[in-house]
Amino acid sequence: MARLAAAVQAGSPRAGRRRGRLPGGRHARTGGRRRRLPGRGPSGLHPWRAGGGRCSDEDRAVLDEPFVNPDPAQGEAEPVLAPLVAPDTGPAREWAEASPPLVTVHPDELPEGDSHLSVTRTFCFADLCGFTGYTRAHGPHEAVAMLGEFRRITRSVAAKRGVRVAKWLGDGAMLVSTSAAAALSLGAHLIHHFASRGVQIRVGAATGEALLFEGDDYVGEPVNLAAKLCAAAPPGEMYTVTDALDMPDWVTCIGDVTVQIRGVGPISGVHRLLPLGLAAEHGGDVSRLSSDIDALTNELDQLSSELGSELNQLSSELDELGTAGNEPMSDG
User: Fold this and answer.
1) What superfamily does domain 91-104+115-276 belong to in CATH?
2) What distances in angstroms separate CA 261 from CA 18, 204, 239, 258, 270, one per listed residue?
């Protein structure tokens, strides 16, 4: 009996654990230190907490970084990823900054009626080209995977470049930014990423004033224009209309075009933008096409010359026949 009591005392949960906690539970300690949970960063923390302090809902919403290695090998330095936070351009903050006296007023003092906030933004629409054909060729599972990649890349790059994903549009997206350069960089980034993925991206962007509608949507000419430019852009290109073409050094304008917009008419001065690498390939294609056209022109000139000679000879033969027919017949 004494041995049984000693064994029970040795295995009691009071030894190094609080009462009521079962051995092997989630609060059990291993080797005298807290056990790290899978998918967490240094000190058992999520990466957004590893940077120090608590993370707000705003920060968490835009973080899109891979997890760090929770259990690095012996002697291996564990990387620490600092949170990447994009500037908030959400409707709530826009209203707060536009009308600070109304943020905390009593309900009876808040003005009645609809309020429409006018904001200047760059609106960008991106669309997966040939998605229906891709689905038919590769099946729905591959199509869903491609769509998932499109949304993941768009969300991640938008957060890093300070652009907000306003809404998803099936196989496309509507994006909003306070910076034209950021929006154009995002569009060019998507074109560059999907250039060799079997589907291409086309992008339309426009800058101007629009009304913030019902707190989470935008209404105005630049919104409609950006959507129409996206629909008119060739696969793998970006059409944009901005007052000042502010582009990074890795994006180039390959020319301006006039686009016919239904319900609006012709829009001139539309810039065609491409990443530099694709622009070089595009330029090579244009050069090869130009050479082919020159060769065809030369062949046509040669054929035209030969045909002209043959026509001249035929005309001479016809003249001779006509002259012979007009000669008086001799009496015989």
Assistant:
1) Nucleotide cyclase, GGDEF domain (3.30.70.1230)
2) 72, 13, 13, 9, 12
